[in-house]
Amino acid sequence: MSSATKGVSIVDKIQWLEWSPEAFEKARREDKLILLDIGAPWCHWCHVMDEEAYGNHDIRKLVEQLYVPVRVECDKRPDINERYNQGGWPTTVIMSHEGFVVHGATYLPSPALKELLKQAKNWYDQNRKRISEAAGVLATEAARVSPLAAPEPHQVKELTSEIIEDILKNSDPVHGGFGDSAKFPQAGPISLAFAQFFRTADERLLAFAEKTLQNMSAGLLDKEAGGLFRYSVSPEWNEPHYEKNLIVNAESLQNYLDAYRLTGKKEYAVTAENIIRFITEKLLNPDGGFSNSQDADIFDEHSLRIIMEGETYYSLPLSERQKYGEPVIDRTVYVNASARAISAILEAYHLLQNENLREIALKSLDYLMKNAFDKDSGALHYPSDGRKGTPAFLDDAVSLARANLDAYETTADHGYLESAKKLMEVARARFAAPDGGFYDATLDSDMPPATQIRHKPLHENMAAVETFGRLYNYTADSAYLMIAASTLISFEQNVRNLLEKDLGYMAAEYALAFQFASDRSTKVTIVGSAKEAKARKLLHEAKRLYRPAKIVQLLDPSKDIQLIKAMRYPVEDIPAAHVCTEKGCAPPIRDIDELAKLMIS
């Protein structure tokens, strides 16, 4: 059985191949088209299509005669998913051996798939020359870049007001979230709404964020076992799709923690604790790191049958569910998802004051650094199978660097800071684009040129901006600030394009990242020995309280005297917190209550 089928389903009748040069060469040699299936182990309709379509004898024969079947798991190869996904899972794509897309669709029932396989082959046979020429044009376009001059920080455009206006204009005033059909948790707009509410006291922003989070927890939270389902089919958030994904839960956890910080409402803490319960009880692996997802259904991979659909299973109380087992958990530890969970759990430790969460997060981070980090190639995508066949992506590098910075803020251990610096150094070398910003992946030169499509995702690039902005604040090295600024500038037009399409809420991460590359951030520096209880209490309080774009650092005079001098902080016998905001720097603070009062003002 091809390893490409593991974790998606075991389809005995179709011998799926990996996405690889060998698969495309096989298609060229045998004069066949590529049938690309993009799915996920948690995907309900992928199971249905495996059972009803790919298990069909006639379809199997067509695939065997006319196609080279290639299966990609979207979480394992997010780069392929990003480039070829047709709007959902499963995605069905028919390609030439040169990498030109002949046809694309999502879920197809057996009759529709059977007809497509026939028609696509006929159309391809009649248009081979045109397809080959189009593939050549695509390859030329994919290779084209335009250099960008190195910017100055003052050239960065903020665009926060425009993005906020778009959020208020396009959000659902009744149910929260965005859109009038399916609703997905979107952490960025909620985080930005909280940040701007803190700065402006605009109650509309708080109302949007609270309404969204309240309806999410009412409709998507598994009240029995914890954790949020991935999305709702309905705009009211009350028809969940029952898969649970680590990334969705980690990012939403941060939103609920911030809601609790800002409002003091216990309901948000309760939801946060339910998410944490799912992550730590169901997804935490014994050695550290977190499993990626839990299936929507109870699915038998051997018989290709859905034994019990999620809607039925999750309607049962926990005691009844146990009689039927549980949906399969994909135990793959993806670095990007696990790192985001580590960051959120460290925040939960400070706010909920649960020492166990700190231990879980740091153990998981140490596991990733030991098993999914290489000094030459940086972050890996997942640590299974050793280091072979685990390509790293920008998201892995940046998410792991951010987790290290969060651990550095929590522990004051410089080892975490050095790890973050190394990760971003390697990421720059591997992913930097000549026209600014960062590509999501490196290219495989052995693949057909038309498949070598460069992509610069906004979300991951803005996470990189935040990371470089934080590194600047920790080190006073202005080179980091320049990288952050140049990346923001390279995305300005992308953001304006989204605003023109009334999709500015999808650029919330741009406004959030801008704070870290400008004077909008808040820097809290505690000068004192990490061994002193007073210094640790000041650090913990600074981490516990809400403030947007907050950067916390403990500088120990016995280790950091040069940096203390460079940043012009006085060294005194009693630990003190130095708080600098966009309004300026306050006098040294030695009292916990005074620090709290200043932080929330």
UniProtKB/TrEMBL annotation:
BP terms from Gene Ontology: carbohydrate metabolic process
Family matches, as Pfam families: Thioredox_DsbH
Domain of life: Bacteria
InterPro entries, alphabetized: 6-hairpin_glycosidase_sf, 6hp_glycosidase-like_sf, Ssp411, Ssp411-like_TRX, Thioredoxin-like_sf
Domain Spermatogenesis-associated protein 20-like TRX: 12-138
The protein, known as: Thioredoxin domain-containing protein
Organism: Abyssobacteria bacterium (strain SURF_5)
